[in-house]
Target: Metalloprotease
Amino acid sequence: MSQRPWGPPPPGNAPRGVPAGQNPYGYNPYGPPQQGWGGPSPYGRPGLQPTGQGPRRPAPRRRSPIRTLLMTGVVLGLLMVGALAVSNLAGGGATETAYQNDSYQVPPPDTSPPALPQPETYDEAEQLLVANPFYDQTAPDPVRCEADPIDVGSASDRELEEHFDGLMECLVRVWQPPVEGAGFQIVRPTVTVYGQEVTTRCGKSGVNAFYCGADQQVYYSNLLDDAVPVVASDKWGADVVMAHEFGHALQARTAILISSQALGQQAGDEATELAFSRRLEVQADCLSGMFMRSVSGSLRIEQSDVRGILDVYKAVGDDTVSGDSSIVGNHGLARSREYWGQTGLASGDVGTCNTYTAKANLVR
Model:
């Protein structure tokens, strides 16, 4: 296979509705998230494990070169959907098993992180998506996390920042072994709490929660619970959201994020770009579910909490956000996000979150 280098953007190759040179994947294009509930998962009853996920490469892509991708425009955001009950969640009371990775000293937030890794060719980008060494790793379980549930609707900005900063410590403790085991470097981001609007190195955002690849930090609007009430109504809702955003940080630090965007843009057609974006987003759902699984014992997440976690995932499917059941969006339908959130909750094997070899119907 030829080693195709990154190239300049062909004339007129910007995605529809996106100025040339700008990243097409940013904030939710359908406006502030609306509360909405999807129907039953089409993939089976709660607790049923996915089947029939044979390896499958993404659809063939045109080989024409695209713009050089710079991370100073990468904004990936929003929440997640779906998860199903799993038997190894805590049933009340801390686990008696010794916590894993407990001697690891989590570093402080890094405001000047090292540059993100990136592929040198499109062929390397494809391999980083379908056969990334990150997929060969296992998330430690159980892992200690001392964060308590927070009422995001009544918490002050300072309380929110303190809570999310502690959650980032837990996230790094869970993900440090698999990230570094794969030969990459993990970074602990800061969390900035803002109100109606914020301007970052990734651009301007309204009410949202997102990871910015340009500065490798996480942002959270204190109005998100108004836009997506389930975030406030479920005691773990905000943590599920932030674990998803940290999932994007993991994708960035393992070169999955930039590889996915590169190949999506290379295709030169909107449908393929959207498909790559959905695979990226539902993978972050899966990684968030895997984190919740790892810390479920120390957080005393009970089986009765699973329904609320499911509702957080489902609330922001492209179909529930837009109200259009036939939409072809960039984050995934509620049923897809539910499926991948459940997949993460049910396993510690990072490879189960390899959405880039999943069948197309699982990443709609």
